[in-house]
């Protein structure tokens, strides 16, 4: 619906208060429509009259003079504007209440939360949980509903812990991420700072609440150690912000991925789900050996794409100290060592011929893929080095599936 907004002289009364702009019938509502007849003839639509005074001033008497803008005719020396503007439609729903707009907003929010939690670490955590849980399987009958419930008991609390760990890092690293990772939700402004803090705090509370309900001590210690280490890594307070110390950071990543996660996940399944005595089988020791090399490589390679932002904000990572090229090839060495350990252990430890073949060949293929990928890396290009870092995680996903085969 379209409307005519009539701008009257300051001594005119408002239409909304019962004032009459047509004194002694000199002007009528129809005359206003005549002033805008070129619109009414073209559209044949209803109009809404809006009164908008240009300025407030009281004068003696109620003299209503208009300056009409039509064919150049002037009624008085006071100017009035006839403004044509679309009036809101009362037949349509507002944008906020539109189901499609609500669905779209919800979808965008979930996508931003998905990016907020670093999905690749969650995928690795999921596969790592499954891999460590399979190490506790002794018989085919162990693959039961209880086994899958045990996996969910680890995955769900750790999902919220991952939200906390990755989120708190972004909350304290907004300025750094604007340089290194401007696509992240907080750095790009897709999520507000308040929303980020709310997600972080809520995730930590929910994670420990679920752990308390489940009642597994290995699960609780996994969450407690993880939250303590990575809170100290990110929070910018005295004696914290441990990311400034590269050796300490490497130790955290090494301890988390090589020891804390596989051991606590295995013990959760072994002692809490299957109710068996705690032990450390040969397969678990092999997993720890493989993940030790791989975790060191990840700890050193994670900062290769972020050297520029880290240096500007006083974060002297290994990549910043050693240089990107040197750090890169040290990482490649540790990754290839991990795959070499995988091949050797598969040949020595596996009791089944087909397990030896699949596990050994699988690690050889993964090592070859990594080596070929190094030939296409441009160390001066952050996108190229970041692609290498993500490729490492993809190789880790596959390796997790091979670890339970070495028994």
TrEMBL record:
<dbReference type="GO" id="GO:0031969">
    <property type="term" value="C:chloroplast membrane"/>
</dbReference>
<feature type="transmembrane region" description="Helical">
    <location>
        <begin position="248"/>
        <end position="268"/>
    </location>
</feature>
<keyword id="KW-0808">Transferase</keyword>
<feature type="transmembrane region" description="Helical">
    <location>
        <begin position="191"/>
        <end position="211"/>
    </location>
</feature>
<feature type="transmembrane region" description="Helical">
    <location>
        <begin position="217"/>
        <end position="236"/>
    </location>
</feature>
<keyword id="KW-1133">Transmembrane helix</keyword>
<feature type="transmembrane region" description="Helical">
    <location>
        <begin position="388"/>
        <end position="406"/>
    </location>
</feature>
<comment type="similarity">
    <text>Belongs to the UbiA prenyltransferase family.</text>
</comment>
<feature type="transmembrane region" description="Helical">
    <location>
        <begin position="280"/>
        <end position="300"/>
    </location>
</feature>
<dbReference type="GO" id="GO:0016740">
    <property type="term" value="F:transferase activity"/>
</dbReference>
<dbReference type="InterPro" id="IPR044878">
    <property type="entry name" value="UbiA_sf"/>
</dbReference>
<keyword id="KW-0812">Transmembrane</keyword>
<dbReference type="InterPro" id="IPR000537">
    <property type="entry name" value="UbiA_prenyltransferase"/>
</dbReference>
<feature type="transmembrane region" description="Helical">
    <location>
        <begin position="327"/>
        <end position="348"/>
    </location>
</feature>
<protein>
    <recommendedName>
        <fullName>Glycinol 4-dimethylallyltransferase</fullName>
    </recommendedName>
</protein>
<keyword id="KW-0472">Membrane</keyword>
<dbReference type="Pfam" id="PF01040">
    <property type="entry name" value="UbiA"/>
</dbReference>
């Amino acid at each position: 619906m379209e409307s005519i907004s009539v701008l009257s002289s300051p001594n005119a009364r408002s239409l909304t208060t019962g004032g009459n702009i047509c004194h002694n019938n000199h002007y009528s509502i129809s005359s206003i429509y005549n002033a805008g007849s070129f619109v009414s003839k073209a559209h044949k639509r209803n109009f809404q009259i809006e009164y908008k005074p240009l300025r407030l001033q009281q004068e003696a008497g109620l003299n209503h003079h208009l300056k009409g803008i039509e064919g150049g005719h002037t009624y008085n020396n006071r100017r009035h504007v006839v403004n044509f503007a679309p009036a809101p439609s009362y037949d349509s729903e507002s944008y906020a209440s539109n189901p499609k707009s609500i669905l779209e907003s919800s979808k965008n929010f979930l996508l931003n939360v998905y990016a907020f939690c670093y999905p690749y670490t969650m995928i690795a955590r999921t596969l790592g949980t499954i891999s460590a849980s399979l190490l506790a399987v002794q018989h085919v009958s162990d693959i039961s509903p209880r086994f899958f419930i045990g996996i969910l008991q680890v995955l769900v609390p750790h999902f919220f812990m991952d939200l906390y760990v990755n989120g708190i890092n972004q909350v304290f690293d907004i300025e750094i991420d604007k340089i290194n990772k401007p696509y992240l939700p907080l750095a790009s402004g897709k999520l507000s700072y308040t929303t980020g803090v709310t997600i972080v705090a809520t995730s930590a509370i929910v994670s420990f609440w679920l752990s308390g309900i489940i009642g597994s001590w290995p699960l609780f210690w996994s969450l407690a150690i993880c939250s303590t280490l990575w809170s100290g890594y990110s929070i910018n307070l005295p004696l914290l912000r441990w990311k400034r110390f590269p050796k300490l950071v490497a130790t955290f990543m090494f301890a988390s991925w090589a020891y804390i996660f596989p051991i606590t996940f295995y013990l959760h399944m072994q002692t809490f789900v299957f109710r068996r005595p705690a032990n450390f089988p040969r397969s678990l020791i092999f997993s720890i050996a493989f993940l030790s090399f791989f975790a060191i490589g990840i700890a050193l390679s994670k900062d290769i794409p972020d050297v520029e932002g880290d240096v500007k904000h006083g974060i002297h990572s290994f990549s910043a100290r050693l240089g990107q090229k040197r750090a890169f090839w040290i990482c490649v060495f540790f990754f290839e060592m991990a795959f070499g350990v995988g091949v050797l252990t598969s040949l020595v430890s596996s009791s089944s011929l087909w397990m030896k073949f699949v596990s050994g060949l699988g690690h050889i293929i993964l090592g070859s893929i990594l080596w070929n990928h190094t030939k296409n890396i441009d160390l001066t290009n952050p996108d190229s080095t970041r692609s290498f870092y993500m490729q490492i995680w993809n190789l880790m996903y596959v390796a997790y599936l091979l670890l339970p085969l070495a028994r």
